[in-house]
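Collaborator request, handled under Task 6.
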Amino acid sequence: MTMKEKIMPPLVLTLICVISSALLVLAYNLTYVDTTGIITDKLSAGLSEIYGTPDGFEMLINDDGTVKSYEGVTSIIDNGSGKTAFEITADGYSKGGLHLLIGFDESGAVCGISVLTIGETPGLGTKVQDSAYLDRFKGITSPDFQVDGITGATYSSKGMNKAVETAVNAYSQLKEEQGNG
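Structure tokens returned to the collaborator:
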């Protein structure tokens, strides 16, 4: 076997891999759509659940084009008239098991919570998405609130409390930055 016969198969395979990779990168670049700052259908449904209508809401964007966020807050959605919602993913029993949209009204109080997705234990942990439980958080304006947990769903309840506390703190920080705090 000559040197040419030994080198040719690996060289051809390497060439095929390089060409395939280049075509994959090209296809990605041609079809990529930047969704930064876009309110998804899931977020829109959450806004409808909290406010009745998602009209007029926009995701807040930083000067550099990135989505505005705070520690624990994925995105902030505002309608420019005092209604602000915070997208939060919190740990309950499951890590990242609570994906929530927590809305504030013009007075700065929690006016509703929409559970976008939940990865908690079915039957127990998922009780935190019941409207009777979520309604306990309405009217909260300060991070030092007290909402009793659900028996048997301790971690999920603590995760929900932590998410609301995060949203209240983020709301205060946002208003402070806007000069309204």
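The cover message to the collaborator said: "The two ends are 80 Å apart (CA to CA). The longest helix spans residues 3-31. Please let us know whether this matches your experimental observations."
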